[in-house]
Amino acid sequence: DLASLERESAMVVEATSGPQRHRIDLFTGYCSVGQAAVDLGTSTHVLAYDNDQAAIDGGRAALEAAGLEKGNSQVTVINADINLVTLKRLGRDVRKLWSLGLEDVDSVHVWFPCDTFTSAMLTENKHRQSDSTARAGPDGAMAREADKLLHHVVELSIRLHRINPSMLITFENPHNPYNDLFLNHVAVRKLRRTLPTVTVAFDHCANTGPYDVKRYPGGWSRKDTRMVIVAEDGILEHFKPGTCRGKDCPHIMWS
Fold first, then answer.
1. Tell me: the pLDDT tens digits for 51-72?
2. Reduced to 3 states, what is the DSSP secondary structure of residue 51?
3. In Å, how far from its chain's centre is CA 186?
4. Distances from the Cα of 11 to the Cαs of 33, 113, 222, in angstroms?
5. Cα(46)–Cα(25) distance, rounded to whole angstroms?
6. In angstroms, rounded to a whole number, what is the distance separating the alpha carbons of residues 86 and 153?
7. How far apart are CA 216 and CA 39, in angstroms?
8. Rounded to whole angstroms, how far apart are CA atoms 88 and 71?
């Protein structure tokens, strides 16, 4: 029942009234896009999964600081290994939490951990080859673990798209100007080949608007980012997210 779902949740902040949209976040991160949408006052229910306690604690602090009890939203973050979050589990949690089916979910966001891509070829963290494959032996252990996880969330996204082709599915990862390890990964190539996708450059500090000013008066510093967006044909025809003007931006963090 819902009570048992909430007992395993790390965070539940809610208020009700008004029409709702529903989204799933895989890897909530410190300030997930779903949480940012809620903070901006949109009427959104968010179900997020992460097993990084530091990220969950950071998310809780961000939500509490935003005073979400004043909005028309609900955010639930569940501490879970995303490798174990199956389609069946998603359906069960959505049904228990919202009394809806997966076909009713509006969007899914995947904020995949960046350590295994953005910095995966740095001397102190080198665990991938230039073609994005894992290095042999113990050096490639981190990459192999991440590969398993990325293949899982890509397959999950493909199955979700089959259930609801109008569901907006977004994958996000910081961009390293010296390599495209994330975009060149075999799982991401499969996603882009199998589903209708658009890949766009995206800079957080150029897109966060009131969220940026409210939470980070000095600017929301984040890395230059790439987003792979799965959506119906034509829906992104006029979508042009903001980008920073090179290194003139005082907030952008360069890899």
1. 877 777 766 666 665 554 445 5
2. coil
3. 19
4. 16, 20, 24
5. 7
6. 9
7. 13
8. 30
Helix (H, G, I), strand (E, B) or coil at 135: coil
Burial of 169 (0-12, 13-18, 19+ CB in 10 A): buried
pLDDT (tens digit per residue) in 185-229: 999 999 999 999 988 877 666 655 544 545 555 555 566 778 898
Q: What is the pTM of this model?
A: 0.80
**Tokens (6 digits) for 159:** 């199955």
Q: From edge to edge, which strands make up the β-sheet containing 168-174?
A: 9-14, 74-79, 44-50, 21-26, 107-111, 168-174, 225-230, 197-202
Maximum CA extent, the chain: 54
- Could you tell me if 71 and 13 are in contact, meaning their C-beta atoms sit under 8 angstroms apart? no
Task: Write the Ramachandran bin of 247: left for phi over 0, alpha for psi from -120 to 50, otherwise beta.
Answer: alpha
Look at the block and give the residue holding tokens 């979400």.
Answer: 68
Query: Where is average pLDDT lowest: 97-111, 150-164, 192-206?
Result: 192-206
Residue 23 near residue 37, CB atoms below 8 Å? yes
Q: Measuring CA to CA, which residue among 55, 47, 5, 54 is closest to residue 26?
A: 47
